[in-house]
What we know:
It contains 9 helices and 13 strands. It is of the alpha/beta class. Strands 3, 4, 5, 6, 7, 8, 9, 10, 11, 12 and 13 form an 11-stranded mixed sheet that branches. Strands 1-2 form a two-stranded antiparallel ribbon. Helix 1 (3-16) packs across helix 2, helix 1 packs across helix 3 and helix 1 (3-16) crosses helix 4. The model is unreliable at 305-318 (pLDDT under 50).
Amino acid sequence: xxxxxxxxxxxxxxxxxxxxxxxxxxxxxxxxxxxxxxxxxxxxxxxxxxxxxxxxxxxxxxxxxxxxxxxxxxxxxxxxxxxxxxxxxxxxxxxxxxxxxxxxxxxxxxxxxxxxxxxxxxxxxxxxxxxxxxxxxxxxxxxxxxxxxxxxxxxxxxxxxxxxxxxxxxxxxxxxxxxxxxxxxxxxxxxxxxxxxxxxxxxxxxxxxxxxxxxxxxxxxxxxxxxxxxxxxxxxxxxxxxxxxxxxxxxxxxxxxxxxxxxxxxxxxxxxxxxxxxxxxxxxxxxxxxxxxxxxxxxxxxxxxxxxxxxxxxxxxx
Length: 318
């Protein structure tokens, strides 16, 4: 039995005290309306109306049930309205993720920007590597994420692909720190601090390949992502890391950031979500990420004719 429709019929007849007027109000014929009322009476075990040739009178039992019927109809209408707002991206929960290398300034800008765009949506934000995001997007345990390229994007829709150039982060006493622009060949003999390969295998391999092509093969690859751990590696060993330009580098007097000559390395990233699941909230998050990274990380549209674009080891000073 369609309880909601039967209750609508019950309330309409009770308020009109006439089957014909109630049927007109509901946009249906009178015989089906009478049948619905009879079925509701059988289901409830309560006689709702006394019928005569001239009028319909609600019974005492019907009167006792009328307020409850109105309440249930109001709740059903509210439920439908909420579902509609969720579908349109104005309410509900959005499960989103950002990679660990996003700066604190960018995270704050994304949170503020999304709240402005979709204040009725609760944002559940996770810190996940690209590999973890891809797995969760595939299983629909995540609605949208910010992934680094290259990676396998089959089954996904993407927002605009953004890029920004990478420079090198190194101890202030390193000889290369005296250069205005550092060629990759000048890093020979240095270890490279890099994110774990499992986080983004294709990006990891492409970065090392590009370094080798430009004359730099790290003496060793050390894995590090946390700010304190990575800083310790940079200061206590002969090691460097790749990172985007950022004012936060200037806050550490023991480290310097320098651009790479000819800009051979760059970070590429975009919002991603499962195909066919890009509702208004997902697209609002994608737009917010694009705007926030443009303002806080100097990220711009990726150019197909540019150099090979790669993911940074980490944006360490979050």
